[in-house]
Backbone:
C-alpha cells in the first residue's frame, strides 16, 4: 500500500469532461424556456470536472490504500469476514436482474419472485424458523423489523402494555439502539461470572410490561448460552417473545437451529454468515425469520404463491408495515442464494464446525501470551483481555490492546475487534471464520507471538505502530473537535 | 469439504490435537444435545459453479426486463461503464467498515468525496455516509426532527410524496409514538394553505415535502420555509438528487434537512436494491445526524487523512441513546454515486435533465394528441408526469399489451391516473413505438 494524497476535486479542471450522452437531435425543448425560473437553481453545484482516465487512476490509487478480505486475513470479531466467492458477483451482475424496474407487472417478474421464494425456504430450513422477509437492508434494519413484528404481535392481541425489552449487557450496540428506535425501553440483564446471561438476574425483570428479550447465541464472548431452554421458558411464561440476533449465527450454521432453541423471531446478516461482501460498510441484507404464529405480522411486500403464479402482496391488518422502499437489497440476496446453493445439504454442516475449530485453535495457541478471562470452549469467536506482559515498567507505559491492533497492521493483518464487548477493559475479540486455512492461522499466531515479545521487550515499538501503512495513527480528537466534513470546509482551512 | 473451506483431513486432525479434542462434534459439548440438529437439512443438493449458473439462467429466463417508461422513485438513467469497473475492485467491495483508518484510506476518502458531492447538490453543509434507501432516510429524518423538537409529537407529510416514502415514514412513526398527519394537495402540489392550517392545529416537529412529487410535478415551495420555521418546525425536503443540477436546491428552498434516494445517480434499477438513501442537513443539526460521518484530520506526521468522526452519536458508543440504530449503510453504493458524479460533473447532469425533459415533453404532447389520455394538472414537470386515462381506455389491458411488446409504461396510481417517465436513455424509436401501441391498442 502506498500513500496517495489527492481528492477527486483536486484533479478538477474547468471545461474537462468524462461523459458522453446520446443525442436524439429531435427534442428541441429546453427547461429554461418552459419551467418558471423561480423553480430553477441559481447557484451552481461545484462537482469535479475530470476525464475518464483521471477517474480511473484516482480510484485505482484509492483502492491501493484499502485492505479487504481479498488482501488478507481479517480476524474481526462479530463481523464474520469470510471469503466472498466470485460466482456470487457473476450472478448478481446478470443483465436480467440488474435492469429490472421493481414495479414491473408480476408476470414479468416470476423468476425474481421464485428466487425470493427459494431463499425464504432455504433460510427457514437452516434456521428452523417458518417464514422469512428479505426486505430489511442490513442487520440493524433486521433487528428493528423483528422488534416491530414483536410489537405488532402483542398489539394484535390487544396487549399494549409491553413497552420494555430485555437486552444483555454483552449485546451488540445495535440491539439497544434498535429497541429505542422501535419505541421500546431497554432493560439490561447482567452477565454472570462465566460470561452468560444471569438467569437469577433475569427472573425479576420479567412481567406484563416485557415485550421480549433480545439474545445473541453464542453471545459476543463467543459462548453458547446453554441455559437458553430455561430462559425461553421463563420469557414465554411471562408472555414475552424471544428475539435472536443472528450476527453470530456462523458457528451454528449446519449444527444448531435458532428455531429449535425457542426463538420466535430472528434476523440473519447475509453479509456475514452468507458470504456476501461487506462493501466497506454495506450494502448488506438482514432477512428476518419468524415462527408460524407470527406470519401475519411480517412486513410487506411479501411474495405469495397462488397456484402457479407468484405475486408480491400487501400486508394484512397486523402487518408490521412497509420497512424499506421495495423488497430489500435484491443484489445481495442473489449473492447469498448462490452461496447457499454451493453449500447444499452436503456441506452446510461444515461451516459452523470449521469456523468453531479455527476460533478454538487460535485461542489455545495464544493463551500463553494473552489474558484469557473465560477459558471454556468458544464458538466462532473469543475475547482476550490484553497482553499478559504488556511491558509496563518504571517510566514506560505498557502496550494496550489498541497498540497490539495497530502493530498487527504492520504485519499485513487486519486488527481484531477491540474494546468490545464492554465487559473487559482491554478486550480483543477474534473471529477467524471457516474460510481461513491452517497456514493463515499459523502465520497470524506467529505474528501475535512476535508482537507479545516486542511488547515485553520494549512497548514503544507497539506505541509507534503502525509504520508500514499508507498513514500513521490519525488525530481522532482533532477530527471530532474541529469537524471538516466536506471539500468546501477543507478549502476554507487551507 | 466445500470449495471455500481449505481444510484437509490432516489439518483438522492437527488442530483438534492442539485444542485437546477428538472430534469436531466435541466443539459443541457445551450445547444441550437436544439442540444439535439430527439428520439432513432440507436444502437442495450442493451445486457446482456451472450448476449455480444454470439455476440463475433458468430464473433469468422467467424474468423479462422491460424498457421502463415508469419512474415512481426508480429512474432508468445511464450508468457509465467506469463505475462497475472500479467498484468491482475487491479492495473496495471486500473491505469492512473503515474502523482501521491506516488501512482504509480508500474507503474513507471516497466517502468524504461522496459527502462533499451530496453537499454540493443539496446545498446543505453536512452529509452522512449514506442510509439504506430514500424512504428509510425520510423516516430517519422524521426521527431527527422529533428528537430536535423534544416535546412535539407530530410530523406533517405531504400527500404528494411517493407512496413508499409515506408508508415507511408511517411505519417508523407508528412504533416511535409519532403522529403523522398528511398535508392535503391542491392542483397536484402540496397546498401552502393546508400546510399553514396543519401547523396551527398540531404540535409539529417537522414537515416532509417532495421537490418533485408523485405526479412528477416540480413543486413550488415559496413560503413553505417561513411558515414552517415560524412554527419552530424543521423543513425536510425529499428530492431526486439527479434533478438537483437544475432545480432549486433544498438549501435554496430554506430546508433544514434534505433526504432522498441516490438510485438516480448511476445505480442500476436492480429490482429496487441496493440503492442508497442520502441525508444532509445544516451544521446546526450535525450532531443529531444518524449514521457514519467521515472527517478530515492529519496523522502523526502531519499528512492529510480521513477518519470516521463524531461517533458519539452512534449505536456502538451510545447504545439506546444513539441518534439511530444504523450500522452498515450502503457504502459501496456511495462509491457508485461518487464515481457517477465525477464522470458526469455538473454539465453532464444538466444534460441528463435537459434530455429527459425534452423526451418526457415530447411523449406528453404526443399522448394527449392520441386522445387516449387527458391533461390532469397544468403544472411544470421534468422527466415524469401523470395523465388521466380517457373514457373507455382499459389500463390493465393496455399494460398487458405493452408488456407483450417489451415496454413498461402507464403505471396506475389510482383514480384512473397513470404516470409515465422518460430519461435520457429512451430513444425516439422507443418513444414512438410506445405512442403507436397506445394509439392503436388503448
Residues:
Amino acid at each position: 500500500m502506498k500513500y496517495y494524497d489527492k481528492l477527486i476535486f483536486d484533479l478538477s479542471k474547468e471545461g474537462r469532461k468524462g461523459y458522453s450522452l446520446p443525442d436524439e437531435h429531435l427534442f428541441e425543448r429546453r427547461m429554461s424556456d418552459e419551467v418558471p425560473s423561480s423553480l430553477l437553481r441559481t447557484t451552481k453545484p461545484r462537482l469535479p470536472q475530470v476525464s475518464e482516465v483521471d477517474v480511473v487512476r484516482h480510484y485505482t490509487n484509492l483502492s491501493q490504500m484499502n485492505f479487504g478480505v481479498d488482501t488478507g486475513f481479517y480476524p474481526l470479531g462479530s463481523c464474520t469476514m469470510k471469503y466472498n466467492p466470485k460466482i456470487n458477483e457473476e450472478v448478481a451482475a446478470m443483465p436480467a436482474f440488474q435492469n429490472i424496474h421493481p414495479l414491473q407487472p408480476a408476470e414479468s417478474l416470476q423468476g425474481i419472485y421464485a428466487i425470493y421464494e427459494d431463499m425464504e425456504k432455504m433460510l427457514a430450513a437452516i434456521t428452523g424458523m417458518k417464514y422469512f422477509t428479505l426486505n430489511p437492508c442490513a442487520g440493524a434494519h433486521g433487528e428493528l423489523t423483528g422488534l416491530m413484528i414483536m410489537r405488532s404481535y402483542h398489539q394484535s392481541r390487544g396487549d399494549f402494555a409491553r413497552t420494555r425489552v430485555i437486552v444483555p449487557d454483552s449485546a451488540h450496540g445495535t440491539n439497544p439502539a434498535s429497541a429505542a428506535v422501535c419505541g421500546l425501553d431497554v432493560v439490561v440483564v447482567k452477565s454472570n461470572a462465566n460470561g452468560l446471561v444471569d438467569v437469577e438476574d433475569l427472573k425479576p425483570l420479567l412481567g406484563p410490561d416485557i415485550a421480549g428479550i433480545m439474545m445473541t447465541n453464542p453471545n459476543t464472548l463467543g459462548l453458547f448460552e446453554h441455559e437458553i431452554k430455561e430462559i425461553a421458558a421463563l420469557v414465554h411464561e411471562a408472555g414475552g417473545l424471544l428475539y435472536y440476533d443472528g450476527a453470530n449465527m456462523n458457528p451454528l450454521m449446519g449444527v444448531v437451529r435458532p428455531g429449535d432453541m425457542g426463538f420466535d423471531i430472528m434476523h440473519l446478516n447475509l453479509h456475514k454468515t452468507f458470504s456476501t461482501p461487506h462493501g466497506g460498510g454495506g450494502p448488506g441484507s438482514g432477512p428476518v425469520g419468524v415462527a408460524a404464529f407470527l406470519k401475519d405480522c411480517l412486513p410487506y411486500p411479501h411474495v405469495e404463491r397462488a397456484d402457479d403464479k407468484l405475486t408480491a402482496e400487501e400486508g394484512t391488518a397486523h402487518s408490521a408495515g412497509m420497512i424499506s422502499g421495495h423488497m430489500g437489497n435484491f443484489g445481495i440476496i442473489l449473492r447469498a442464494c448462490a452461496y447457499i446453493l454451493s453449500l447444499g445439504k452436503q456441506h452446510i454442516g461444515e461451516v459452523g464446525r470449521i469456523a468453531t475449530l479455527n476460533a478454538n485453535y487460535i485461542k489455545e495457541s495464544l493463551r500463553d501470551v494473552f489474558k484469557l478471562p473465560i477459558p471454556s470452549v468458544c464458538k466462532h469467536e473469543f475475547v482476550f483481555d490484553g497482553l499478559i506482559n504488556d511491558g509496563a515498567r518504571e517510566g514506560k507505559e505498557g502496550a494496550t490492546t489498541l497498540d497490539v491492533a495497530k502493530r498487527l497492521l504492520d504485519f499485513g493483518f487486519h486488527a481484531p475487534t477491540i474494546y468490545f464487548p464492554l465487559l473487559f477493559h482491554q478486550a480483543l475479540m477474534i473471529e477467524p471464520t471457516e474460510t481461513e486455512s491452517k497456514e493463515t492461522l499459523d502465520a497470524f499466531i506467529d505474528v501475535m507471538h512476535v508482537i507479545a515479545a516486542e511488547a515485553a521487550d520494549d512497548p514503544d515499538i507497539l506505541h509507534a505502530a503502525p509504520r508500514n501503512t499508507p498513514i500513521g495513527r490519525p488525530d481522532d480528537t482533532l477530527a471530532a473537535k474541529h469537524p471538516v466534513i466536506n471539500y468546501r470546509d477543507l478549502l476554507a482551512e487551507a | 469439504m466445500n470449495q471455500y473451506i481449505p481444510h484437509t483431513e490432516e489439518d483438522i486432525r492437527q488442530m483438534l490435537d492442539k485444542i485437546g479434542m477428538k472430534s469436531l462434534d466435541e466443539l459443541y459439548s457445551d450445547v444441550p444435545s437436544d439442540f444439535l440438529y439430527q439428520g439432513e437439512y432440507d436444502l437442495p443438493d450442493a451445486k457446482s459453479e456451472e450448476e449455480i449458473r444454470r439455476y440463475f439462467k433458468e430464473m433469468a429466463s422467467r424474468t423479462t426486463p422491460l424498457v421502463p417508461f415508469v419512474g415512481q422513485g426508480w429512474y432508468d438513467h445511464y450508468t457509465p461503464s467506469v463505475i462497475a469497473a472500479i467498484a468491482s475492485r475487491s479492495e473496495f467491495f471486500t473491505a469492512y467498515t473503515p474502523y482501521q483508518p491506516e488501512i482504509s484510506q480508500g474507503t474513507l476518502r471516497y466517502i468524504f468525496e461522496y459527502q462533499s458531492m451530496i453537499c454540493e447538490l443539496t446545498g446543505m453543509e453536512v452529509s452522512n455516509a449514506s442510509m439504506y434507501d430514500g424512504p428509510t432516510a425520510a423516516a430517519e429524518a422524521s426521527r431527527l426532527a422529533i428528537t430536535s423538537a423534544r416535546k412535539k409529537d407530530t410530523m406533517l407529510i405531504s400527500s404528494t410524496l411517493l407512496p413508499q416514502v409515506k408508508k415507511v415514514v408511517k411505519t417508523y412513526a407508528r412504533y416511535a409514538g409519532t403522529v403523522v398527519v398528511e398535508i392535503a394537495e391542491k392542483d397536484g402540489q402540496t397546498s401552502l394553505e393546508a400546510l399553514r392550517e396543519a401547523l396551527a392545529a398540531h404540535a409539529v416537529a417537522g414537515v416532509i415535502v417532495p421537490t418533485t412529487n408523485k405526479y412528477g410535478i416540480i413543486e413550488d415551495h415559496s413560503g413553505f420555509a417561513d411558515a414552517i420555521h415560524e412554527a419552530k418546525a424543521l423543513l425536510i425536503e425529499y428530492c431526486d438528487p439527479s434533478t438537483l443540477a437544475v432545480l432549486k436546491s433544498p438549501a435554496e428552498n430554506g430546508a433544514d434537512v434534505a433526504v432522498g434516494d441516490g438510485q438516480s445517480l448511476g445505480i442500476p434499477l436492480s429490482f429496487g436494491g441496493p440503492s442508497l438513501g442520502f441525508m444532509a442537513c445544516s451544521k446546526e443539526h450535525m450532531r443529531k445526524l444518524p449514521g457514519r460521518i467521515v472527517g478530515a484530520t492529519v496523522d502523526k506526521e502531519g499528512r492529510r487523512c480521513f477518519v470516521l468522526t463524531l461517533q458519539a452519536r452512534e449505536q456502538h458508543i451510545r447504545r439506546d441513546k444513539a441518534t439511530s440504530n444504523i450500522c452498515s449503510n450502503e457504502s459501496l453504493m456511495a462509491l457508485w454515486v461518487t464515481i457517477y458524479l465525477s464522470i458526469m460533473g455538473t454539465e453532464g447532469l444538466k444534460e441528463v435533465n435537459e434530455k429527459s425533459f425534452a423526451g418526457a415533453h415530447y411523449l406528453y404532447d404526443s399522448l394527449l394528441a392520441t386522445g387516449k389520455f387527458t391533461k390532469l394538472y397544468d403544472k411544470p414537470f421534468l422527466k415524469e408526469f401523470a395523465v388521466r386515462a380517457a373514457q373507455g381506455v382499459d389500463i390493465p389491458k393496455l399494460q398487458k399489451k405493452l408488456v407483450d411488446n417489451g415496454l413498461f409504461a402507464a403505471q396506475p396510481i389510482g383514480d384512473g391516473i397513470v404516470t409515465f417517465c422518460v430519461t435520457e436513455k429512451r430513444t425516439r424509436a422507443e418513444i414512438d413505438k410506445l405512442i403507436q401501441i397506445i394509439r392503436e391498442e388503448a
About this structure: Chain B has a mean pLDDT of 96. The radius of gyration of chain B is 25 Å.
